[in-house]
Specification:
249 residues, mainly alpha
Length: 249
């Protein structure tokens, strides 16, 4: 329409009925073109399938397709093979391949492609997907790192509350396990440090307080043990009689 405004149609050469006839013909032509393309907007699947067909060198349509739910395993495999023919330095290629492998439950391959994507784009969903993989692999350190990265990159992420709860839970479990490992390795100072982190994260955790008081007692640091017990009492926690007996002056 912008181009037509600069043509003879809008000049003084055509007036009245002739201009109306030409304008009507153009409107009809555009209407027919629009009508024939309505089906492309029926749903996301139709739209992105046509986009992938019309733009064979673009990765975005394939990424949107593979994120959908209507593809069969055979179609996902076909898209995966098509992605390998696209310029591997193009942004989001490896991310798309990673998502495909996630759909195929091939976590190691997905993780490899997500890491290959990171030099090209710091997309928050890359870290989110990596966090899911590490969570399934019981790697709490890496899970925490990835989820914290998502929250920092996209604070308004729809799963932020869930991720924050998961981060807190994983940290508590991680610090408690580290404390137990340190005790078994005869490293009481290290164990005490991890228990203090648990208490900092969860001030009302009775188990961490109990273990820390007992640890200080075994380290012959009676004053610190009494201080922890005092904190437990101040927070309304029930103190085991045997612990009170141990720290009694």
């Amino acid at each position: 329409l912008l181009i037509l405004s600069q043509t003879l149609l809008f000049s003084d050469k055509f007036k009245g009925r002739y201009r109306m006839i030409i304008a009507t013909a153009i409107i009809l032509l555009f209407s027919i073109i629009s009508f024939t393309r309505i089906s492309l907007f029926k749903n996301e699947d139709n739209f992105w399938r046509m986009a992938a067909q019309d733009s064979p060198h673009a990765i975005m349509p394939r990424m949107m397709l593979v994120n959908g739910t209507t593809l069969t395993p055979e179609e996902r495999e076909k898209i995966r093979k098509e992605c390998y023919t696209i310029d591997q330095d193009q942004m989001m290629v490896h991310y798309t391949l990673g998502k495909i492998y996630m759909q195929l439950n091939q976590d190691d391959s997905a993780k490899r492609h997500f890491y290959l994507e990171l030099p090209y784009s710091q997309f928050s969903d890359i870290y989110y997907q990596l966090g899911l993989i590490y969570s399934r692999q019981k790697n709490s350190d890496s899970t925490i790192f990835c989820l914290e990265k998502v929250v920092s990159l996209e604070p308004q992420h729809p799963n932020t509350p869930t991720m924050q709860g998961m981060i807190r839970s994983l940290k508590l479990q991680h610090f408690m396990e580290k404390a137990q490992t340190a005790v078994q390795a005869n490293q009481p100072d290290t164990a005490a440090g991890f228990l203090l982190k648990v208490i900092e994260l969860d001030p009302g955790n009775p188990q961490a307080h109990y273990n820390l008081a007992l640890l200080y007692f075994n380290m012959k640091q009676q004053e610190k043990a009494r201080e922890v017990v005092g904190q437990m009492q101040a927070k309304g926690m029930k103190v085991a009689p045997e612990l009170l007996k141990l720290i009694k002056p």
